[in-house]
C-alpha cells in the first residue's frame, strides 16, 4: 500500500494497515494510547509514524509506517552481533527513548519485539499500548505493565516508578543483542522473583565483552532508579564512541539478504 507523503509532490511512503475488532479487545484504553503517542504532532525518525486511524463498524483500522525488516528479535536470533553493530542499534533506540522521555512519556515495554528495523538502516520504536504520560500532577505510575523478563525491579515490586524503567528494559534488550535472548527467558516466573529480590541480571560470558561495553550495560541496572542512567547520558557514553558505531545500513542490508534466502 502506498500513502502520499506531505513532504513533497509525488513522494510516497510505504504503509501497512492493522485491523482490530473493538468488541474483542480487552483493553481499549491501550489502543487509545497507541494512537495518541504514535500520532504526536512532531515527527521523530526513531518513532514509527502513525499515518491515520479509522473506525468502521466494530473495527479500528490503524495505518502505520511500514518497516520491511521486521523486528530486532529477528536479527538477534539469526546472527551474531558485533559490538560496533550493537552500538549502532543502541544509539538509534536511545534517541527514540530520549524523545519519549523528554515529552514525559514512559514506554513500559521496551524489548527487541518492539524495535522495528528496515533494510535501509532505519530503527524505530513501536507498540505504544503500554505507554503512560507523566507530569506535575502525576509524576510516577504504579500499574504493573510490561513483559516479565524485561521488567524493572520497581515495577515487579509494585513500587512507584518513572522513565527509569525504560532504561532497565533497554539494558535487557542490549543483553538480547549479546546473547540472543534475555536472562531467564524460559523462566519468566524466576525473572520476576529475582527482580523482587533486587537482583541485577548477569551476562553469561562477560569476559568476552570490552570493559567499556560492560560498563555501559551496568549503567542500565542501577537498583536505585534515581541513580540509573538516562537515555541522554547513555548517548554520551564512551561505548557509543569508542566502538565507532557503524552506519546501520552497512550490516542490516547483508543481514536481511541472508535471512530472506
UniProtKB/TrEMBL annotation:
Extent of the signal sequence: none
UniProt-listed SMART domains: S_TKc
Keyword annotations from UniProtKB, A to Z: ATP-binding, Kinase, Nucleotide-binding, Transferase
A molecular-function term among this protein's GO annotations: ATP binding
Pfam families from the UniProt entry: Pkinase (PF00069)
Domain (Protein kinase): residue spans on this chain: 1-240
PANTHER family hit by this protein: SERINE/THREONINE-PROTEIN KINASE SAMKA-RELATED-RELATED (PTHR45832), SERINE_THREONINE-PROTEIN KINASE SAMKA-RELATED (PTHR45832:SF22)
Family: Belongs to the protein kinase superfamily. STE Ser/Thr protein kinase family. STE20 subfamily.
Protein name per Swiss-Prot or TrEMBL: Kinase-like protein
Amino acid at each position: 500500500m502506498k500513502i502520499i507523503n506531505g513532504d513533497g509532490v509525488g513522494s510516497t511512503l510505504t504503509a501497512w494497515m492493522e485491523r482490530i475488532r473493538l468488541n474483542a479487545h480487552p483493553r481499549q484504553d491501550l489502543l487509545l494510547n497507541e494512537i495518541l503517542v504514535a500520532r504526536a504532532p512532531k515527527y521523530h525518525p526513531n518513532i514509527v509514524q502513525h499515518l491515520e486511524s479509522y473506525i468502521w463498524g466494530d473495527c479500528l483500522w490503524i495505518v502505520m509506517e511500514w518497516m520491511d525488516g521486521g523486528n530486532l528479535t529477528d536479527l538477534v536470533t539469526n546472527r551474531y552481533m558485533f559490538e560496533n553493530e550493537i552500538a549502532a542499534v543502541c544509539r538509534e533506540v536511545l534517541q527514540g527513548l530520549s524523545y519519549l522521555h523528554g515529552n514525559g512519556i514512559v514506554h513500559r515495554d521496551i524489548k527487541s519485539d518492539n524495535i522495528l528495523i528496515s533494510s535501509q538502516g532505519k530503527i524505530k520504536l513501536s507498540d505504544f499500548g503500554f505507554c503512560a504520560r507523566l507530569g506535575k500532577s502525576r509524576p510516577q505510575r504504579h500499574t504493573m505493565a510490561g513483559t516479565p523478563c524485561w521488567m524493572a525491579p520497581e515495577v515487579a515490586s509494585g513500587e512507584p516508578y518513572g522513565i527509569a524503567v525504560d532504561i532497565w528494559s533497554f539494558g535487557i534488550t542490549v543483553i538480547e543483542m549479546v546473547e540472543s535472548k534475555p536472562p531467564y527467558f524460559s523462566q519468566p516466573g524466576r525473572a520476576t522473583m529475582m527482580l523482587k529480590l533486587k537482583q541485577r541480571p548477569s551476562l553469561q560470558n562477560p569476559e568476552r565483552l570490552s570493559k567499556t561495553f560492560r560498563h555501559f550495560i551496568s549503567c542500565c541496572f542501577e537498583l536505585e532508579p534515581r541513580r540509573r542512567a538516562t537515555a541522554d547520558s547513555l548517548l554520551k557514553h564512551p561505548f557509543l564512541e569508542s566502538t565507532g558505531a557503524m552506519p546501520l545500513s552497512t550490516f542490516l542490508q547483508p543481514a536481511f539478504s541472508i535471512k530472506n534466502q
